[in-house]
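Sample entry as discussed:
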Amino acid sequence: MTSKMEIERICRFCGAHFKAQKTTTAYCTHKCASAAYKDRKRKSRIEAAKNLITPKESLTQISVEILCKPFLTPTEVSILLGIGRSTIYRYLQNNELKAVQLKGKTLIRRSDIEAMFDNSNSYRARPTKETKPITDFYTTAEIKEKYGITESWIFKTAKEKNIPKTLNHGKSYFSKKHIDQHFTHRQIDNSIKEWLTVIEIKEQYNLSQAAIYSFTSENSIPRKKAGKTVYYSKYHFDVAKGLLKPKETEYYSVEEAMHKYKFTRDMVYHYVKYHNIHKKKVGRYIKISKTELDKLFEEPTIL
């Protein structure tokens, strides 16, 4: 039974006046209640973080006590050296640092810690990786033809992704390697023969324009743009609608893809998700489209 009470209240979060139907109502809308909840959680995390911070005086006192002790526990050694306890235990397991266990308590002699530094190898700096100069470039016309995108989109993406570019006689040239990395998934599939405009889809499938955009986005329907007109693959649209059965495709197992391209498992799943590569589940195993994965990493065509 709905209450008919109307109580004048002030929202605790935004301060607006509103009429409540319960005496316990504190916020004018669900949005204010959610925002207030998040604010309380944020403040509690800040307070918890403040409580974890050790005061400077306590740290100084601990350091002095450690410096005065001839025998230290692994925890004290980690504080003294400023490294994690797990690293100290790894040194002990590898016999790089000596220790004695007395009734479950591990003690490390200070002189053994100092001996580690006396017998250490000379510091070897990690060699810096030499960057190769960029020699291969696309013109804007070549990018537009290959990937079917507008000139404004090329410059927008190049600015956002920091794609290297150069100017020559007033023309812009973009690094082939970086352009291919960002736009390979947008390359037009030449094997697709039938394309439909939005108007044709509306007539054939009786869908609204908003429904078409939503459906094509959710199902990763291949598209291309010619001028201002956008076209969608009829075959992929029919497969997504269940009007056609997909063609039989060869698949990699995740392990086969890892072995072929020298990837980790996480890298394989990243490329499959980011580039919308078709996959299917067979029992407990994921199978990845050979054609689409190979196409993603094939050598770019030289125009």
In short: The chain has a mean pLDDT of 80.
